[in-house]
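Predict structure. Input: 8-oxo-dGTP diphosphatase, 141 residues.
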Amino acid sequence: MKQPASASAAAPIDVAVGILMQADGDILLAQRPPGKPYAGYWEFPGGKVEAGESILDALKREFVEELGVEILSAEPWCGVEHVYPHAHVRLHFYISRHWRGAPQSLEGQAFAWQGSVQVAPILPATIPLLEELDKRRYDTR
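Output follows.
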C-alpha cells in the first residue's frame, strides 16, 4: 500500500504575508478562523500566491479579500520556510505602512492591533520573527 507523501516531501507553497504597521509601531495580527488548520492561532494576514501572480499582487489581493484593505505600498522584509504537519510553506513577509481603509473581518476572523504582542497562541512560523520585528518597529535611527 502506497503511503501518502508527507508535507516535508511536498514542494513548498508560496504564501504572501503582510504586516500592517501603524506610525506608532503597532502591528495587525489576525486569528485563524474555525475550520482551518491551526484554528484560533494568531498570525499576520495573507494567503497563497496563485499561479502567474507576483507575491506583491497576491498580498494586495488577499488583503482586499480578507480585510477590505487596499495596500498602497509594501516593502519585502524576510522569507521563511516552515513545514507544518499539513503543508510545507514558503512565507514571503512584507511590511506596509501605507494602506487605504480600516481592517474589517470579512472572513469572520478576529484581529487586533498589537504593540507588545499580547495575543496567544501565535502560529509557530511567526514566533521567531517577533523579536526581529520589534527591532524594526522601534528602531529610531
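The beta strands are 13-20, 27-31, 42-43, 46-48, 70-83, 88-100, 111-114.
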